[in-house]
UniProtKB/TrEMBL annotation:
It comes from Patiriisocius marinus. Belongs to the acyl coenzyme A hydrolase family. Residues 7-119 form the HotDog ACOT-type domain. The lineage of its organism: Bacteria, Pseudomonadati, Bacteroidota, Flavobacteriia, Flavobacteriales. InterPro entries: Cytosol_ACT (IPR040170), HOTDOG_ACOT (IPR033120), HotDog_dom_sf (IPR029069), Thioestr_dom (IPR006683). This is Acyl-CoA thioesterase. One of its GO terms (cellular component) is cytosol.
C-alpha cells in the first residue's frame, strides 16, 4: 500500500455559529463543536484510507476560547498518523474576527478513526509520510499517545512502550 502525505487528507469546514447552537450566555455549545470536529475528522480519515471510517475515540479536546454567537468557525483536520487500521486525526479550530478578518486559534482536538469494510471489520490503511516539521512532530507524538492509551487500557505491557520509556530516559 502506497504511503500518503497529511496534505492529501486535509479537510477544512467553515460555518457560522447560529442562535440554536449557543448556550444562554451566547457561546457555542461544546457538543456542537465536537460534532463539527467529528465530521471534519471523519472526512479527513476517509480521504486518507479511501474506506468507510468509524470514530473510535476522542483522545483530546481543548476548549481554549469561547466561540460567540455569529462567529465564523473553521475546523481544519488532517491525519497525523496511520497505524494498521486506525488513524489519528489532529484538528485545529479557528475563529475569524468579523471586522479585521484575522483568524485566532480557539480550540484543538485529536480523534482516532478505524477503517472498516461493509461488515464493520477493520481494514488496513496506507502509511503516512509526514513532510513538514509540525507534521513530523505530530506523527511522533501520536505513537506516544497510542502507547500510553494501550498501557492504561491494560493492552500493552509498560516495558514494551518504547516511545514512552524514551521520554523518561533522555
Amino acid at each position: 500500500m502506497e504511503a500518503k502525505t497529511p496534505s492529501e487528507s486535509i479537510t477544512i469546514i467553515t460555518d457560522l455559529v447560529l442562535p440554536s447552537e449557543t448556550n444562554p450566555i451566547g457561546n457555542m455549545f461544546g457538543g456542537e463543536l465536537l460534532a463539527r470536529m467529528d465530521r471534519a475528522a471523519s472526512i479527513s480519515a476517509r480521504r486518507h484510507s479511501r474506506r468507510i471510517v468509524v470514530t473510535a475515540s476522542v483522545n483530546h479536546v481543548a476548549f481554549n476560547k469561547m466561540i460567540p454567537l455569529g462567529s465564523v468557525v473553521t475546523v481544519e483536520a488532517k491525519v497525523s498518523r496511520a497505524f494498521k487500521s486506525s488513524m489519528e486525526v489532529y484538528m485545529d479550530v479557528w475563529i475569524e474576527d468579523r471586522e479585521s478578518g484575522l483568524r485566532t486559534k480557539a480550540n484543538e482536538g485529536i480523534y482516532t478513526f478505524v477503517a472498516v469494510n461493509e461488515m464493520g471489520a477493520p481494514m488496513p490503511v496506507p502509511p503516512l509520510l509526514p513532510e513538514t516539521d509540525l507534521e513530523k512532530e505530530r506523527f511522533e507524538a501520536a505513537l506516544r499517545r497510542k502507547q500510553l492509551s494501550l498501557v492504561l487500557a491494560g493492552k500493552m505491557n509498560p516495558t514494551d512502550a518504547t516511545e514512552l520509556k524514551a521520554l523518561f530516559t533522555k
